[in-house]
Amino acid sequence: MRIRRTVPLALIVAALAASPSMAGAKLAPPKPLAWTDMAGDANALNDQGGLAPAGPGDTAGPAQDAAADILGVTFARLDDGKTLLGLTVTMKLSGAPSQGHLYRVTGAAGACSTFWFQFNWTAGGNGSSTLRHNCVANADPTSVGGTTNQTIDGKVVGNSIVWTLLVKELPPGVKVGSPIAPALGETRAIIGVAGAPQSLTAPVIDQTATQSAAYKIGQ
Known about the structure:
With 219 residues, the protein is mainly beta. It has one helix and twelve strands; from the N terminus they run αββββββββββββ.
């Protein structure tokens, strides 16, 4: 005669919870990295490498370009609740972004000393979003400083520019867990029109303070 032994319900629940197939690993709470900048100081005259690089520090007014006035920058994780998908970088402005501006967040990541998020919106053209990096050598003689401009998703959302970099798009030498050391956010004027051979991205209109904290991909 067979003797059936019942397994306590508590043990069954514990076993199911521990099973990877039944309960995938949870992501840790996100830890965005964000910093702010003074409002109303997008005048190209502050001590920001603009028209008066030896001028005073951030000073609001008397005139400024709201479409280039940075209020803050945020690095944040992109996930679906269970899986890490990538990261987003958001630059918030006083006004809606517009043509004739270059929006940029500079920094470094992994072995890449240049790891810049850029949104280039030439007058008369469509905005283009790129990750400018030197993670791999670029033999193109027209390349600026040997960097590569990798196309990534970037769009205007209200008064912000939002870049999205997916895990599968990370360049060589950069991976999940790699720290990104964002240096600063800046906006520049673009002197030139769509279709022209070369446009000048100057002067600097607004620029945030240089940052010391790093953002680890996936945090």
